[in-house]
Amino acid sequence: MKKDQTRNPKKSNQKKDIYLEEESQKGNAGELHQMAGGKHPDLTTSEGVPISDNQNSLRLGPTGPTLLEDFILRDKITHFDHERIPERIVHARGTGAHGFFELTESMEKFTKAKILTEVGVKTPVFARISTVAGGAGSIDTPRDIRGFSVKFYTQEGNWDLVSNNVPVFFIQDAIKFPDLIHAVKMEPDRAFPQASSAHDTFWDFISLTPESMHTIMWLMSDRTLPRALSMIEGFGVHSFRLVNEENKSTFVKFHWRPKLGLQSTLWDEAVKIAGADQDFHRRNMFESIEAGKFPEWELALQLFTQEEADKLPFDHLDATKLIPEELIPLKVIGRMVLNRWPDNFFAETEQVAFCPANIIPGIDFSNDPLLQGRLLSYQDTQLSRLGTVNFHQIPINAPKRPVDNHQRDGQMQMGVPKGRVAYEPNSLSENSPRETQMQGFRSFEASETGEKMRIRSKSFSDHYSQARQFYISQTAYEQAHIASAFVFELSKVEHLHIRERMVSHLLNVDDDLAKRVAKGLGLDKVPKALKAEVPIKKLDPSPALQIIGKMKKTLLGRAVGILIADGSDPEAIMDIKKAALAAGADVKIIAPKVGGAKLADGSLMAADGQLAGTPSVLFDAVAIILSDDSSKVLLKEGAAIDFVRDAFGHLKAITADKGGQVLLKKAGVKKDPGILEVGDTDAFIAAAMTRQWDREKSVRILA
Ligand code: HDD
């Protein structure tokens, strides 16, 4: 008896029999345990006491009351009752992974931070990518900005770069953050909508906050509908400082650029993915790492001096503004690879505590008022989330260099500091920690003067020029998506005056956009433009702000789905599968039954997914390989018709054999360069690497 041997190898036969007798009284639980097999350590209470029975609480006879003295029951239930900690007030839903950062070009000229000067050194990192508005259990694919936090465990302490996937923010001053978040989160009286900005309180606040117009354009763009977490950019948003050995400061903006290129889904696709797989992004990151296809980003910098900043047509300390790459180019200096999934979600992804105030010698803050407020907020939020000043001792938060100081005690203190001395200066201890004047962190010596007042700088007053620049930089397809997103969101707003006020703002962004939105909302007459505080500048377009322009023609990180059924042609399936795998795609076989399908040659092909639970929204391109008989059967299966119709509607490449064509016809698929016959595999693979943008006008009416 394997189980007895592992539990109690030294027990006598007699004892063993008693044990088995007891086991039989547990119903079939004992038998099921034996079926589970394996060698197991002793199960214990939190105090380390071995547990003999984890299936039954202590009671008086088989049907009697449970006894209060059952400390094993109380230990287990009490711990369980306290398992949850408060979720993050924002960015509650997140996916994290371990990895490394490797510097490829030394920034010694600009900074003394070792992580940015030692080329080739691999610094461990933990990254967490999140949505903003929804709760921890919300879906992965709402229209939302994505957070992109990285904790670098450097030799000089932890450096946290707490970024988003858009380069600008809604507000200019941190004092407005609670209002912004209260407005976007579910409305307090009704507790909905969850994870959605499409409701009255959000647009009420936004329409009364002109400074949010630039970020709103990003929010309404496809940037907020990412295809995968490994296909988003990251932006540190604020200007920071790099400070070198000579104490010279250079301003810097941090950018992450995905190796797989930028890619987004369409709105209709994102909505359907939410139904098909709530964990679409998390699962994708997990599966990529498991498969050794590690998500990777380049770290790039925009570096500029105060003199260069003075010449920019806006204030770089205003977080609602970006610096176009065309004005200050990006310098790629390193790469980050995420190559290890956490061992435990709670211990690592949930307990990781990021803070923009975590910087290291050689990096410093700017006066951006939004950043300055963040320096306070994150530490504070961790105290309420993690409950103690000692949260930096949790393994995921602990620096990987020694920590030594005179801080003591506090709840959940894990360290056992030795000695009599817990103060400094002292003459009683020879090995107590001392400050290190040269290597220690020194703030950049900036000279500041001014009156103490609650005021916004006049240089922050232009709220429309960059919003306009963003819009005119987009392709026509992306402009149509932005206009349609406004129409969708504002159509969910019950109050007419809020819809009208938003259109009044949009008139300051782009006349055509405003008219499209007004028309889409069915407004009788277009309202008047709101008065802008300062004249709106005609900034040049910046193509770097597009997504379509930045998509890579590749199948790496993408997925191809092949729909088969009984009688499908094995050669056609293998031909497509081989070509897609060779191009770097994941390939999944979908069949009406999860057990698989019996192919034309009599062989059984296993399925990766059952048709009803594996719709085409989960793939980037699809193949339909069906026998005549099976296609007739599937004509009556809504999931099969939707599989094709959605792939077509989401502008994906489709290849089909004769049987498959029957479904295409039923789904209303019209011939275009993305619709290919089986046999033309090269053309299918080439079409699968992109989307058929021109098809869109034939499948939906956009604003
Ligand atoms: Fe924030 C979390 C990013 C403005 C206050 N923020 C949080 C996270 C990200 C950002 C990625 C999730 C961290 C994680 O994965 O655990 N936040 C940003 C960016 C901002 C920004 C890029 C503007 C440029 N945030 C911002 C302001 C404030 C906060 C102005 C408050 C004054 N943010 C918080 C917070 C959170 C947070 C309440 C909640 C959980 C946490 O910090 O750890 O402190």
Gist?
Among the domains are: 42-83, Cytochrome C Oxidase, Chain J (Irregular), CATH 4.10.91.20; 94-393, Catalase HpII,  Chain A, domain 1 (Beta Barrel), CATH 2.40.180; 557-699, Rossmann fold.
The molecules bound to the chains, other than polymers, are: CIS-heme D hydroxychlorin gamma-spirolactone
* Largest sheet features: 10 strands, antiparallel
CATH topology of the domain at 94-393: Catalase HpII,  Chain A, domain 1
CATH evolutionary superfamily of the domain at 94-393: Catalase core domain
Query: Helix content range of the residues, please?
Result: 25-40%
Q: What is the rounded distance between the termini?
A: 70 Å
- What does the average pLDDT come to? 95
Please tell me what the overall shape is. Answer: globular
Number of distinct beta strands: 18
Count of DSSP helices?
A: 22
Helix vs. strand class: alpha/beta
Give the DSSP E fraction (strand runs of 2 or more residues).
5-15%
The radius of gyration over CA amounts to 29 Å
Low-confidence segments, given as residue ranges, are 1-20
CATH architecture of the domain at 94-393, please? Beta Barrel
What are the SSEs and their pairings?
Blueprint: H1 2-7, H2 13-24, H3 29-36, H4 71-81, E1 94-103, E2 122-131, E3 146-154, E4 157-164, H5 177-184, H6 200-207, H7 213-219, E5 234-235, E6 240-243, E7 249-258, H8 267-276, H9 280-290, E8 296-304, H10 306-311, E9 331-340, H11 345-350, E10 363-365, H12 369-386, H13 465-473, H14 476-491, H15 496-509, H16 511-520, E11 559-563, H17 570-582, E12 586-591, E13 597-598, E14 604-605, E15 609-610, E16 621-624, H18 628-634, H19 638-649, E17 653-656, H20 658-666, E18 675-677, H21 681-688, H22 696-699
Parallel strand pairs: 11-12, 11-16, 12-15, 16-17, 17-18
Antiparallel strand pairs: 1-2, 1-9, 2-3, 3-4, 5-7, 6-7, 6-10, 7-8, 8-9, 13-14
The structure holds CIS-heme D hydroxychlorin gamma-spirolactone.
